[in-house]
Write a structure and sequence with these properties.
5 domains; flat; mainly alpha; 467 residues; two-stranded antiparallel sheet; 3-stranded antiparallel sheet; Lysozyme
């Protein structure tokens, strides 16, 4: 009995020896075994070619690019990750690239931008058009709300154009162009896209005014230090996928379909619309990723809806019936949700609340009859911390907004002059921010300096020097 068990173990070990003796380090990582038994037979085996440091360096040098693709050990570690350690991720973005890259290439060419910038969207989002980060950045190019708004990307409860491949790529091309104009260096422009131009300028100052990414590398935020090396590694991996046996079957790739666009102003339920045109729900969502709730809202402006070109004739022949039918289903239910969902701005007007001393989110929410979570969503706050003087967006129904604005009273200048010095007498509700805005050439810092204030706390009746 013991002899048979011993022979079995020897056989298994011999088989493993044969497998591993013919495998490189990278190949061994691809041998998948179950966790149930130390001696289980490998279930899959994939050949992973090795590449030396010098080979990778030489391959990168052979690429004709406008953006420098500098090679070093940090870049190599990311190349190893994409070509060896997480090959499934790389295959996934390879599949998606055949759908998105033609869109990127056309728009980058339109703005005379380097073609290799298309790889940046992989670093940003893994080519997932609807992904949302913990920092509330959205879409293929990971725009936060305010930067997206600067580049005309509309976002509300129904629609988020940061998820639109065409519009978001247009915005990204413009933004990266502005960053390149600012720094005159592609690597610094990429770093600024990740951490903001202010952080790049700070790193330049701290480095003694060096002017290349690798010279200021140690002074950049940790995430940004890996950002440009990832970009270089992705560019390498896509150009040398075959050399690393990252080859997919033709049927695995996701290819773009020919599309036509219709312009709509009325409410449109995409599922019903697609059913009437015999378009599956998945294709409608793929073609219209910026439609968040499966429906286009009624609006005063036109919204473009994409459909496969081969469905255009059916729509043309039955346009009135199809659009009318798709405008009825689910309209009331979605409008109710739009008005009552947390953080919704649908049908509301925006007012600005300026944070005063003593304000907390709970108090502000109560005064406007909204929730704390609403305020946090409207202002992309990740905690309950607010600061005096901060401006908060508050979205109210039109009647409530009118009433709130009517209640807001301007600071009354209660000032006296004594011995040639002008004083402001603090009134209930006054803050240093309000007072500073009521007197010309006055700031909070100047007020505090003139009055030897160590904090922003003031009391009614207190006299403050203002001139």
């Amino acid at each position: 009995m013991l002899r048979n068990i011993f022979k079995f173990y020897l056989t298994v070990i011999f088989i493993q020896f044969l497998l591993y003796s013919h495998a490189s380090y990278g190949q061994m990582e691809q041998i998948v075994t179950t966790t149930d038994s130390l001696f289980s037979i490998p279930q899959t085996f994939e050949f992973v070619p090795d590449a030396t440091y010098d080979q990778m360096d030489e391959r990168l040098k052979n690429l004709d690019t406008d953006i420098p693709l500098n090679f070093n050990t940090k870049v190599k570690s990311f190349i190893d990750y994409f070509t060896v350690r997480d090959r499934e991720y790389t295959k996934m973005v390879l599949r998606r690239s055949t759908y998105y890259f033609p869109i990127f290439e056309e728009i980058l060419a339109k703005y005379n931008m380097p073609d290799e910038l298309k790889y940046l969207a992989i670093v940003e989002s893994g080519l997932n058009s609807t992904v949302r980060s913990r920092a509330a950045a959205v879409g293929l190019w990971q725009f936060v709300y305010y930067t997206g708004k600067m580049y005309d990307l509309h976002a509300d409860w129904y629609i988020d154009e940061r998820m639109d491949p065409v519009k978001s790529t247009e915005a990204a091309a413009k933004y990266i162009h502005s960053l390149y104009s600012m720094f005159g260096d592609w690597e610094l422009a990429l770093a600024a896209y990740n951490c903001g131009p202010g952080n790049v300028r700070k790193a330049i100052r701290r480095s003694g005014y060096k002017n290349t990414f690798w010279d200021i590398y140690a002074y950049l935020p940790r995430e940004t230090r890996g950002y440009v090396p990832q970009f270089v590694a992705i560019a390498y991996t896509f150009n040398y996928a075959a050399e690393h046996n990252l080859i997919l079957d033709e049927s695995e790739y996701l290819y773009p379909m020919a599309t036509d666009t219709i312009m709509v102003k009325n409410f449109l339920n995409l599922k019903t619309f697609g059913n009437l045109l015999d378009i599956c729900e998945e294709d409608m969502a793929l073609l219209n990723p910026s439609v968040k709730q499966g429906s286009v809202p009624q609006s005063n402006t036109f919204f473009s809806v994409r459909i496969p070109s081969d469905k255009s004739e059916v729509l043309q022949n039955n346009r009135a019936y199809i659009l009318d039918s798709a405008s009825r289903i689910g309209k009331k239910e979605l409008e109710y949700l739009a008005r009552n969902s947390e953080g919704s701005t649908y049908g509301r007007d925006k007012i600005i609340h300026r944070v005063r001393s003593g304000d907390v989110l709970g108090k502000i929410a109560q005064s406007y009859h909204v929730s704390v979570n609403d305020i946090k969503k409207w202002n992309e706050l990740h905690s309950n911390t607010i600061r005096v003087g901060q401006r908060l967006n508050i979205w109210l129904t039109p009647n409530a907004a009118t009433a709130a604005l009517a209640e807001k009273q301007p600071v009354v200048k209660q000032s006296v002059i004594e011995n040639g010095t002008k004083y402001h007498i603090v009134q209930p509700g006054d803050t240093l921010w309000d007072i500073s805005k009521s007197y010309s050439d006055m700031s909070i810092e100047k007020l505090k300096k003139l009055n030897n204030l160590k904090s922003n706390d003031i009391k009614p009746g207190q006299k403050l020097v203002v001139g």
